[in-house]
Amino acid sequence: MLWWSRCRAALPRRGARAHPRSLQARCPPAHIHCSSVPARKHGDFFRDLENEFAKFKQKAKEALPGSDWSPVHQTAGLPPEWADIVIIGGGIVGWSTAYWLKKKEAIREGVRVVVVERDPAYSRASTVLSVGGIRHQFSLPENIHLSMESAHFLRNIQEHLNVVNEDPVDVQFNPSGYLLLAGKEQSDIMAENYRIQRNEGAAVTLLTPQQLQRKFPWINTEGVALASYGLENEGWFDPWLLLNAFRRKAISMGVYPCHGEVVGFQHSTREMETDEGTTVSLKRIHHAIVQMPNSAECQPVKCALLVNAAGAWSSKVAEMIGIGNGPEGTLQGTKLPVEPRKRYVYVFHSPDGPGLDCPMLIDYTGAYFRREGLGGNYVGGLSPAEEEEPDSSNLEVNYEYFHEQIWPKLAQRVPAFQSLKLKSAWAGYYDYNTFDQNAVIGFHQLVTNMVFATGFSGHGLQQSPAVGRAVAELILDGRFKTLDLSAFDFIRFYKGTKLLENNIV
After folding, report:
1. Contact in structure between 178 and 137 (CB atoms under 8 Å)
2. Shortest CA distance to 324 belongs to which of 88, 493, 497?
């Protein structure tokens, strides 16, 4: 195949010296055998074998009526023994990637995809614990286009995620826009961000304090120097409904879901020498070891490629294969700088608060809120300062944080919130990139068949449809096609080149 000949040509011969840049190449490293006729016959053989095996078990059970005995013990939910691609992480990014891989496969069942999800109930999943916002108001063109592509996907969601004989997909998108407020110190940055957003095609507008007051009379404009408002394709939707739609569609297309946890890898290592005389180790994963829930039983899954979409725990997955375990200052010693950061979301009631014209408002203090339904309920929060980060070992909520840090800011900006009542709250995790708070997308340079799709720092949900497509393109086409996301490559951590986003919430 084309990818194999390209990959072989990119690798130095045994004993030859490798140029350092060759270690940073993104050639598809022997990752997948899709589209081959023999592979399809192989799959047909095992499918027929499984059907015959099921018939055998049924006949054996019928011979012993009233008994629950089975002639052969099988652990429910075991993954298949082999797959072309194993996706680690059953959140929105993982299932979006699975969908796009099947969408792009050259022939039906040409790519065997397994999604390993540790928490199929999603009780601790970042996806369903988010506030579900989508916005175009970023400062990096890549982030702007990711959200624009995702908004286009949501507008045409029936064409993508509808399943025959199932109810139509409705993620309850509320296009009320985002409203960002800037004080005097932030106004120049907001104006520059606006220029970038308009150049990239985003429908946003700037409002003076007077215009802001006329459009949203319930806002106290004190301290506001400028506001930025999204005119279309911004707002919020139900995260659970989108996740479930991706999952349901991907499974209908042949993706294998697996309840378990990847606890290790079997891999091979090849030593290479750079032009500077430095020896580096190239690793290739051959099996992902999946431990079954509430059991010591493990199932090795032979695979050609893995996608690390484990979110807040993706760095632990990277460490299992030795990423970051080399000498400090080397590519081998460069860690994946992603860790779980706990964020609180509070639900409060204010009968006299903003009505249907209420957007997702983000104050320059960092406090934010949006309307939740039509009964005077709202959700909101505030990302803490670095020195105030809460303990991320649990999902307990600090209610005092709302009363001491958030409520005063909300009440100052919206006078009607002075008499609000806190109803409930929850906590969720960001897959927080401590380096520059932006995504990590692409192959690792030294673990040749691991692809990253993590580190979104709160933007993963809204960017997931476009990210899944980009990762599928990188794997199956050997390059990004729809959007160039090469700036999110892992190599920037080694080089120390930060990709800074001004609009972090």
Report:
1. yes
2. 493
Q: Please report the sign of the dihedral spanned by the C-alpha atoms of residue 18, residue 22, residue 24, residue 29.
A: negative
Report how far residue 372's alpha carbon sits from residue 360's, in angstroms, rounded to the nearest whole number.
Answer: 10
Question: What average pLDDT score do residues 242-263 get?
Answer: 96
**Pairing mode of beta strands 338-349, 377-381:** antiparallel
Strand duo 338-349 + 82-88: pairing? unpaired
DSSP 112: -
Give just the sign of the alpha carbon dihedral 14, 20, 25, 31: positive
Q: Where would I find the beta strands (DSSP E) of 275-406?
A: 279-291, 298-308, 338-349, 360-362, 368-371, 377-381
- Sequence-separated (6 or more) residues with CB below 8 Å from residue 95: 115, 243, 246, 247, 250, 468
pLDDT in tens, 398-437: 999 999 999 999 999 999 999 999 999 999 999 999 999 9
Pairing of β 256-259 and β 113-117: parallel
Cβ contacts of 482 within 8 Å, gap of 6 or more: 149, 466, 469, 470, 473
Helix axes 460-476, 239-252, angle to 10 degrees: 20
Q: Which of 27-36, 118-127, 478-487 has the lowest mean pLDDT?
A: 27-36
Could you give the 3-state DSSP secondary structure of residue 451?
Answer: strand
- Kindly give the residue spans of alpha helices, DSSP state H, lying in 203-346: 209-215, 239-252, 314-320
Strand 338-349 to strand 113-117: parallel, antiparallel, or no bridges (unpaired)?
unpaired
3 state DSSP class of 462: helix
* 248 touches 163 (CB < 8 A): yes
Cα angle value 309/245/424 (rounded, 5°):
80
pTM of the full predicted structure?
Answer: 0.84
Tokens found for residue 336? 């994946």
Can you read off the two tokens belonging to residue 430?
């960001």
208 touches 106 (CB < 8 A): no
Amino acid in the structure at residue 249: K
Whether 239 and 174 have beta carbons less than 8 Å apart is answered as: no
- Per residue in 321-356, pLDDT (tens digit) is 999 999 999 999 999 999 999 999 999 999 999 999
Q: Is the pLDDT of residue 309 over 60?
A: yes
Give the pLDDT band (50/70/90) at residue 5: very low
